[in-house]
């Protein structure tokens, strides 16, 4: 009987494995984010059935016994921390935030390996860091703020003399956060930075010698001249034109008019639905730095009020949106939609009922927008709707195309018995 080992883990440690451990299995398969190895262990595994899928292969480069300290998610370290007496490496999957101190090196460790990002004082010696991701330096002695900062007069008055504020809003979901800081996601950068769109007494900043370091600045035209010289590090900015109120994005409705007035600069995506004709009529000027979704009945009125916008989508009928749902589109639902509808599904499982005739679909279903979802429908239904489906990272499953499983062929060979051990964990040592 063969013995197989399958390991799904974040960190796979095979630094100190032995021939006895390896020979106990006929096959070893590993899926991991970080794999720790040495030249000795690679030689041991060379003649075996060993397979590893990993994001980062780390050779710790030592034959002596070594201790591994592991972290998952977000961890805060200080260079003054006392390491164990034996040689030690740090392995982190996620984020390391290095607090500032008068010690500017982590020489107590043989190495620090990170899959993710590291936030560190600018003068820290990072020569023993190995990073699969992003290094983000901040000014020594800075006050760290891990939420986007909206500047107010109350904040300016309470800020300490001579302070430097490093502003970086860190989201709760940090997947690909390092990549997005390199410019792949302006939305995240803007929300992580500084917003200064209200009237501010900026003389207070100059008198107190206060400075900022951040990734993005959203500033009103009135504040820009005084504020921007006090901010470093930003890779982009949004300037709100004079006389406009700032709106991050969302839906244009009566509440938005009450909050932002009739001259609005939208820095994000905007939706304008059929029932909001009064809200759109109240607008004097509108600028949208993002995409716009507008009801067909209001499209002409929108064009008259807004000359600056990004990608435009005009939808027909009623707008219906589902997030994280299981939805069955059936005949009864469609027949109640007199003017038809456009649907948007996000992270949802959607099925078009098998008994809905193509004619009813064509008449009442004006569009389907899929985002990270799945849609099941019949072959004829798909032919009728395929031009109306907008697919973003979603699965389309056509019922008539489902294949019957092939009959298993009899084999002359005798089936082998395999004993498989499956392990799912964050850290595994072989």
The best one-word shape is flat
What characterizes the major β-sheet?
Answer: 4 strands, parallel
Structural class: alpha/beta
Q: List the strand order in the largest sheet.
A: 3-2-1-32
Mean pLDDT: 86
* Total number of beta strands: 32
User: How many distinct domains?
Assistant: 5
The quaternary state of the protein chains shown equals single chain
Low-confidence stretches: 173-184
How helical, in percent, are the residues? 10-25%
Tally of alpha and pi helices: 13
Estimated radius of gyration: 29 Å
Q: Roughly how many Å apart are the termini?
A: 21 Å
Binned strand content: 35-45%
Overall description:
It is a single chain. This protein has 430 residues and is an alpha/beta fold. The chain has 5 domains: 2-59, no CATH class; 67-138, no CATH class; 143-240, no CATH class; 245-315, no CATH class; 318-396, no CATH class. Helix content is 20%, strand content 43%. It has 13 helices and 32 strands. The strands form 8 sheets. Strands 3-2-1-32 form a 4-stranded parallel sheet, with helices on one face. Helix 1 (19-23) links the parallel strand 1 (2-13) and strand 2 (27-37). The radius of gyration is 29 Å and the shape is flat. The model is unreliable at 173-184 (pLDDT under 50).
